[in-house]
Amino acid sequence: MKYATEFRDPTAARALLAAIAARADQIGATRAKPLNIMEICGGHTHSIFRYGLDKLIHEGVEFIHGPGCPVCVLPMARVDECVDIAEQPGVILCTFGDAMRVPGHRKSLMQAKAAGSDIRIVYSPLDALELARRNPLRQVVFFGLGFETTTPATALSIQQADRENLANFSVFCNHITVPEPIRALLQDPDMRLDGFIGPGHVSMVIGIHPYDFIANDFHKPIVVAGFEPTDLLQSVLMLLTQIAEGRAAVENQYARVVPEHGNPVSLAAIADVYERRPSFEWRGLGEIDHSGLRIRPRYAAFDAEEKFGIGYAAHSRNVPEIPGCACGSVMMGKLKPPQCPQFGTGCTPDMPLGALMVSSEGACAAYWHYAGVRAAPV
After folding, report:
1. Mean pLDDT score of the chain
2. Rounded mean pLDDT, 358-365
3. Quick one: which of 39, 98, 164, 335 has the fewest CB in 10 Å?
4. Looking at the DSSP assignment, which residues form a beta bridge with residue 280?
């Protein structure tokens, strides 16, 4: 790849759209409904709306938005626990900016910061490490969240803290994994999905084979995709080709970035630092077995749950969702954002009820910023 513009070429996009239309017509001759293609990653959702692919694609293809926004699927109880940590005396809490306005039951991190808590936006857990070095009398806690994309950086920071014996550094671990919620969706008898656009950045770390069960056990095609317009269109065409040919396989459209077997250095760091939780609560999906990561006992000194006696280490509390908020149904692909009665009325980017409206990967934010949708239809 020389230039990103090569993947935004209008001529190439028109050719792909025409090929998709031909395939959709071929499949649609025996189908009464559109093909439901779920893009798992919230980054893909934003690309689809940013480039207007939802309007350009053939009417026989329907994009279904999946649970691939790690900030969005974090339950309110975990946000509350993060606020609890931030409000402890002598604590500096470090977080990615996406998480600042995500509402908890009591308040958001932004509101906690306004009330006096020392909460700082960082771009990497290494920034939090540096703060710990510079503030040896303060407890520096990194709010570790994200799918496999961000998990290695947090693991490497814990390994470095261990080497330096930085006793005032810890991580509130909320890292989660992609394959398990996909399995949960496929096991839901109410879901009608014909194929998946697989996450590109996650797959850069884990490779493509963790998705084999989608094709082997559930007989659904999945194509790991890049984020440019022609990446996504080519991925849709690859999915439709599989469906037309009666195949179900894991294919890699994003081979220029995603290696088949993932990144061995990242995978080694993850295996060293983390182990699977027996279960982890997902907003909208409930408890999913083995879908969350926790810090191994070997690195317990850097586990904020152990250090502060909160979270799953203290039997994490369940917090009910805000009445009328349909974030869960949207993340499961059962509703589109404008179908939530709170969209654009009770829930806006300035005053969000749910994380999907404020996260840079949230489906509601994509509709608001790119599709120009400002309210639920009456």
Report:
1. 91
2. 87
3. 164
4. 288
